[in-house]
Amino acid sequence: MDVTVQPVTTSISGSITVPGDKSVSHRALLLGAIAEGTTTIHNFLASADCLCTAHCLTALGVSCSGLEGSAPATVQGRGLYGLKEPQDILYAGNSGTTARLLLGLLAGLPFTATLSGDASLRRRPMGRVTKPLAAMGAQFLGRRKNTMLPLTVRGGNLQGGVFRLPVASAQLKSALLLAGLYAQGETSIEEPAPSRDHTERMLRHFGVSLHQHGTRTTIPVKGGRRLTAQTVLVPGDISAAAFFLVAAAIIPGSCLTVQGVGLNPSRSGILDVLTAMGVQLEITNRYEESGEPRADISIESRPLKGTLIAGSLIPRLIDELPVLAVAACYAQGETVIKNAMELRIKESDRITALAQELSTLGADIHELPDGLVVRGRPLRGGVVNSHGDHRLAMALAVAALGAKGPVTITSAECVDISFPGFFSLLPGKITLGECR
Ligand code: S3P
Fold it and tell me: How far is C-alpha 192 from the chain's CA centre?
């Protein structure tokens, strides 16, 4: 489906809410499935990615209901060892989180399962997960020396250990934490920089005690812990809020509040960057629920200035880099994004795709091996390609709001992967095109 987004002619103002957090929704399903009792999930994100996790769990014998209605979703937990061997291939669709976290869970279970996904997911690296899980004792068989989907896993009889992660990846860390629940002895995980800690927070919420070693990001898990079903209130997704925060930042005179957004410090790097770029932010109504901090974020536009986005900030805003590249197009001066090699192995190669598509709109943007250099200058209208990547489609839609002419985004239906209804919330006049 093509979508044409018209530039806005007035400022953006008001108050909105965004859908539930994708990372937290996946984890609520997965931990609910292996807990004892019925888990209730409020504000569950019924997007394509999270529904893939639910369908995989259903194939493993878990009953999930109310996923798409207005009532809370429920998961009938089967306990740590209650999942059953699936009768067919588990399909993770476009979802890296589904694939990697499930591989961790399946590694602990004494049966055989095969996992696959769509063309994009089948290109993404799984060796970062299968290698340490194999070292724990799980067996894998798959393409490219067991590093790419489809992958068959034969789990069970895991041994814990100490794992030093080569990348700050929450998916990798979470896969090992889940496997650690089934391992003999302790499983300790050391990250090169802190990545999102939703799994740790939710494991604690479900009654598993984790230990942090001083300032080091070492998270040991003793094997054989039991999870007790819980109520989970999913916060608004800061990665979804990001599109509207940047929209308000780049449209002069705008003033917007996004309510009830997850403000986990391991996810809130975008607020640091927007502040460094010069916008006015106010955080109010802070509270914590289900182990996750949340608040209302108010933003007022200001003339933006370029900035440096690098180092340990990167894992705290990895999914927001496409829309921050758009903010950089509307800033005075140069923005440099470095140390973001991981962007090349997301749903698309986001470095190349952003450089290509934003150049089509007239941006001054250049690729680095591990990032981008953007110099602000006005954007024009044009036809751009989402590359089937939801975050790229939404970032390009935000770019369109401040452009000098309409922007048509091809294959824009991919926004449903993380944000169904995105286009109906977007300010300005939207025209939906033909299905392709
Ligand atoms: C996620 C972790 C991040 C992020 C992804 C969701 C998660 O991936 O980009 O969208 O829910 O754990 P990596 O673990 O590969 O950094």
Answer: 19
In degrees rounded to 5, what are phi and psi of residue 78? -110, 5
Q: Is the CB of 418 under 6 A from ligand 1?
A: no
Which residue segments constitute the domains of the chain, with CATH numbers given?
3-20+236-432 (3.65.10.10), 22-221 (3.65.10.10)
Give dist(CA 218, CA 213) in Å, integer: 6
Q: Which residue minimizes the CA distance to atom 15 of ligand 1? A: 169
pLDDT value at 230 more than 60: yes
The model's pTM: 0.97
d(CA 310, CA 117): 31
Give φ, ψ of 47 to 5 degrees.
-100, 170
Task: State yes or no: pLDDT of 76 exceeds 90.
Answer: yes
Which tens digit of pLDDT belongs to each residue from 392-414?
999 999 999 999 999 999 999 99
Calculate ∠ Cα 330-335-338, nearest 5°.
140
What is the maximal distance between C-alpha atoms in the chain?
62
**Residue 175, CB-side half-sphere exposure with 13 Å CA sphere:** 28
Q: Whose CA is nearest to atom 16 of ligand 1?
A: 169
Cβ atoms of 235 and 294 closer than 8 Å: yes
The answer to whether residue 319 is catalytic is yes
pLDDT tens-digit map of 283-337? 999 999 999 999 999 999 999 999 999 999 999 999 999 999 999 999 999 999 9
In ligand 1, the atom with minimum distance to the C-alpha of 170 is: 14
Mean pLDDT of 115-120: 98
Give, for ligand 1, the residue of 22, 95, 126, 169 to mutate: max count of ligand atoms closer than 8 Å to Cβ. 169
Q: Is the pLDDT of residue 361 over 50?
A: yes
Query: Where residue 224 falls among pLDDT bands split at 50, 70, 90?
Result: low
Q: Which of 25, 26, 178, 196 to mutate to test the pocket of ligand 1 (most atoms within 8 A of CB)?
A: 196
Q: Report helix, strand or coil for 410.
A: strand
The verdict on the CB of residue 25 being under 6 Å from ligand 1 is no
8 Å CB contact between 254 and 12: yes
Cα distance between residue 431 and residue 299, in whole Å: 27
The Cα 198–Cα 235 span in angstroms is 11
Closest-lying ligand 1 atom to the alpha carbon of residue 22: 11
Q: Residue 233: its pLDDT value, please?
A: 98
The tokens for 149 are 């989907």
pLDDT of residue 434: 43
